[in-house]
Amino acid sequence: MSFRYITVIPEIEMSGHSGAAIAAYPMLSCFPNQKRDLPDNMISEKSKQELVNGKVKLVQETWGVFTDVYAPTEYTFKFLEDVLDEEETIRNVGN
Predict the structure, then answer these.
(1) For the whole model, what pTM was predicted?
(2) What DSSP string describes the chain?
């Protein structure tokens, strides 16, 4: 999109945003029912309380390599396809 000589380029970085997607939709994970295993020094007090209250997945609050990754299922592929289709739609608005 270009407005006032500014071009906005939407970006979805798959591996970097997978943690947020898995936190929102645990069924995308290879381990949908397994609590997110993060060291205490890598999560906030709020997130610790969410785990105590029964939340299974958390958004990562720091960078790193994590074992909770996308499950290679039809559901996951459809989800990712929908995300990319939406991103393409947003990118093409106004062109």
Answers:
(1) 0.75
(2) -EETTEE------HHHHHHHHHHH-GGGBSSTTSPP---GGGS-HHHHHHHHTT------SS-S--S--B--SHHHHHHHHHHHHHHHHHHHTT-
